[in-house]
Amino acid sequence: MFQRIRQKIRYAVRDAGALAGMNKSYFRSARGARIVVYHGICQRDHLRFNNIFLRLKTFEEHLRYYKEYCHVITLDDYFAQRFSDDRFNVCISFDDGYENNHRYVLPLLEKYELPAVFFVTTIRQAGYDILWNDFLGMLNKYGPYRLVYRNETFYKGELNHYISERNGRKLMEMLRDQGFAEKVEMMEVLYPHVAFRERQGEEEYWLQMTETQIRELSESKWVTIGSHGFYHNDLGRLPISSVTEELTASKRCLEQWTGKPVRSVAFPYGTYSRAAVEAALQAGFDQILALDYHFPDDRGDLAMRERFIVNPFISTENQLLATIKRTYAL
User: Which is nearest to 116 in space by CA: 225, 213, 209, 27?
Assistant: First the structure.
């Protein structure tokens, strides 16, 4: 608790410094490169179901800062190391394929003339318009304190995550070990606790882009489309045969939808195995994105790059400072 308090105080001190213009010279003198990760964008209440959304006005402020202080580059340029020597280089990436990316993000990229890469699932091809983890996020908010699933009792623990009374594992973690069929079963059985389709005004927190919207996104000169798997499964935990099938199917589907080659893949949750990396290469991906490298040899792998997730709890000034330093530690 005291560590969190100290961190808040330090962020507040940084924000006070920002008002005095103390960070501007640091931003202008910074050098290096970073791929930043965004997910969903909403008008308000960005922490409603998870901590991966940003408010629209905050995201636009990020873009203004990038425009003023950074050199924003495409993913192709990042992999080719075509970096500016005069500014800090940023590659903007989005994960998951939310409909709000098409509605809110695309117009802003065109307004500020900044490129971005969108890693999308092909869950629509399977007949679904929601990712299983977004369903679970709504279940955590709206579900009862205790529920029974597959003859196992779960209770709400820290941050309202459901935890097994039998083994202490989170339901989320248990499902990440399983395939999509088990996740579909979970959503069907537990839907009465959520009934999200009957809740008006919440679509922007969970709705996935359609095939048409993904195609329209890809037609912008500021956009690159990459794969985020077929079902948003954890590809670091599944059998390699399932990983290969999912990566191959997602690449084929996206290329059919967009009419363009899809070279890049970002592993959902940032997790992977060396076998999953090899499967991605065999599927035809030559740009492979993680969050943090898992194995010693990864840093020297020319096909791989790390990324840095945006923090929804801090100011734009603090975010850019953290992005440049690649740490939220103060």
Answer: 225
Name the residue with tokens 């399983």.
178
Q: Which are the contacts of 43, defined by CB distance < 8 A and separation ≥ 6?
A: 55, 56, 204
Least Cα distance to 66 among 116, 114, 119 occurs for: 114
Decide which of 1.10.10.10, 3.30.300.20, 3.20.20.370, 3.30.460.80 is the CATH code for 2-128+212-325: 3.20.20.370
Provide the CA 268 distance to its chain's centre, in angstroms: 8
Percent of the chain residues past pLDDT 70, beyond the cut = 94
**pLDDT level of residue 2 (50, 70, 90 thresholds):** very low
CA distance 33 to 73: 10
Between helix 132-142 and helix 180-190 the angle, nearest 10°, is 30
Q: How far is CA 223 from CA 43, 76, 305, in A?
A: 22, 11, 19
The pLDDT value given to residue 42? 98
- What is the torsional sign of CA 210, 56, 45, 174? positive
